[in-house]
Amino acid sequence: MPEIGRRKVLGVAGAAVCGAAVLAGCGGAEPSGPAPGIKGKEIVKAADVPVGGGKVISKWKIVVTQPTAGVYKAFSAACTHKGCAVGSPKEGVMTCPCHGSEFDASDGKCLKGPATAPLTALQVKLEGDGIVIV
């Protein structure tokens, strides 16, 4: 019987772990759509979302923006490249601190890679003085 070298064993084990991680979604972007149980809940006060800026709600991994006065948008804050949380918008752009992907704060469109897909948009509405996921 031929002897199996250490590199071959480690390579096969690494491939198995990597394959399992891909199947489990480990290390990739999060599934689209809001977290279970968040619909209908206030996620942030409208006053906390500046015009031309936004706010990351870490608890829900959501970013809420206000591109123009009175217009609120929400997106998954999970970068579509590897799932790191993007930062709050600066000058209309949300940047992923892990690999530098950039997304438009008004529509979630990917402006700069390595990500290629837009952030997942979530529907929101203003209810009283809060922003609620629809």
Helix content: 10-25%
Based on CA inertia axes, which overall geometry fits?
Answer: globular
Q: What percentage of amino acids are in beta strands?
A: 25-35%
Classify the secondary structure makeup into a structural class.
Answer: alpha+beta
Sheet having the most strands: 4 strands, antiparallel
For the biggest β-sheet, the strand order reads 2-3-4-8
Oligomer: single chain
Mean pLDDT: 81
Question: Do you know the CATH architecture of the largest domain?
Answer: 3-layer Sandwich
- Helices and strands, in order, run as HEEEEEEEEEE
Number of domains: 2
Please count the helical segments.
1
As residue ranges, the low-confidence spans are: 6-32
Question: What integer value in Å does the Rg equal?
Answer: 19 Å
Strands, count: 10
CATH topology name of the largest domain: Rieske Iron-sulfur Protein
Kindly, what is the distance between the CA atoms of the first and last residues, rounded to a whole number of angstroms? 63 Å
CATH class of the largest domain: Mainly Beta
CATH superfamily of the largest domain: Rieske [2Fe-2S] iron-sulphur domain
Pfam families: Rieske
InterPro entries: Rieske_2Fe-2S, Rieske_2Fe-2S_sf, Rieske_Fe-S_prot, Rieske_Fe-S_prot_C, TAT_signal
Keywords: 2Fe-2S, Disulfide bond, Iron, Iron-sulfur, Metal-binding
Protein name: Cytochrome bc1 complex Rieske iron-sulfur subunit
